[in-house]
Write a structure and sequence with these properties.
single chain, mainly alpha
Length: 324
């Protein structure tokens, strides 16, 4: 773990007021953007367009959930029928966006929203075209750079994802999502990151963790972000057991209920058994009592027993670090 993340997690675990750490991020100044006039007829039409988009997506989500419920009862609707119903809902929204943009081709926010709509309906190339147009219309809007970075992360070239996320961060340095997204792309595309940043694999891990730390510094009470950071340690080699446990302890501090808290004991146990700390791992598993974790607990306990037996069979002391 890097000094940045070590210091941050240590500070956050030491206080019951994690938001205090985010004061560092608050010093950055973000250029204010003009607020649209709510009485402007174009703005009113744009807002109605967004409402249509949101309402339609909610209705499609209801259709999907309804069909899943029928399927669970053994009576799903024909796949073609469901697709047709969804398409029937989407077409008026697409037409509304296209009509609006024919009359207001330089409306960057509408192009951003239309791109997001197209992304939701899996038209990635169409989404890219709208976001690129929005970026050219308003190159200081970080959302355009962020959305395009997400596209390049999925469709390539990934080097553009590195560059565009960095630009979004430059334009909006207080947005935690941009740091988290760039950290994830760096972590997942390690070979490309090594070439792009001219660093080795260990340094790639450090860079990803630093970016995650920047995100957590700006959003220190985000449980899902904290667990994403902790999950990263499963892929880091050689293992960084103590760092992983520190990250999971912080995530556990943010857990929103007993189910989430118990689930983290499973992670404690996995890292400890891999490090040969079998008694500690067993105690962590004893803390897991919820029935929903029974099968997972059983599998981890079996892994613990196998590794413990293997360690005893070698007549050697348990290794400090191991592999799962």
């Amino acid at each position: 773990m890097t000094n940045l993340l070590v210091g941050l997690l240590g500070a956050l675990l030491a206080t019951n007021q994690p938001v205090a750490v985010s004061n560092v991020a608050a010093k950055a100044v973000v250029a204010s953007k003009p607020v649209a006039d709510p009485n402007d007829p174009v703005e009113q039409e744009y807002q109605r367009l967004l409402e249509l988009d949101d309402t339609t997506l909610e209705e499609v989500d209801r259709i999907i959930r309804e069909n899943e419920a029928f399927a669970a009862q053994g009576a799903p609707a024909p796949a073609g029928s469901v697709r047709q119903r969804i398409q029937t809902h989407f077409e008026p929204v697409r037409k509304a966006y296209e009509d609006f943009l024919k009359r207001h081709p330089d409306h960057a926010r509408a192009r951003l929203a239309f791109g997001s709509f197209l992304g939701d309906i899996k038209d990635e190339d169409g989404a890219h075209d709208q976001w690129e147009h929005a970026r050219q219309l308003d190159p200081k809007n970080p959302a355009a750079w962020n959305n395009l970075a997400k596209y390049y992360a999925h469709c390539g070239p990934v080097t553009k994802a590195f560059e565009y996320y960095a630009k979004a961060i430059e334009l909006e340095p207080n947005e935690p999502l941009y740091y988290q997204s760039l950290g994830t792309v760096v972590y997942l595309f390690r070979t490309a990151a090594m070439e792009h940043y001219r660093i080795n694999e260990a340094q790639v891990f450090d860079k990803a963790l630093d970016l995650y730390a920047q995100a957590l510094q700006r959003d220190p009470t985000n449980f899902l972000l904290a667990t994403d950071i902790a999950q990263t340690y499963y892929g880091i080699r050689p293992p960084r057991t103590e760092d992983a446990l520190l990250a999971w302890r912080y995530a556990q501090k943010l857990a929103r209920d007993d189910i989430e808290r118990e689930g983290i004991y499973i992670h404690f146990a996995r890292f400890k058994l891999n490090a040969g700390r079998f008694d500690e791992a067993r105690r962590d598993l004893d803390s897991v009592t919820n029935a929903m974790y029974a099968d997972l607990k059983k599998r981890v306990l079996r892994s613990l027993e196998l590794k413990e037996a293997e360690a005893k069979g070698t007549n050697a002391p348990p290794s400090k670090e191991g592999k799962n």
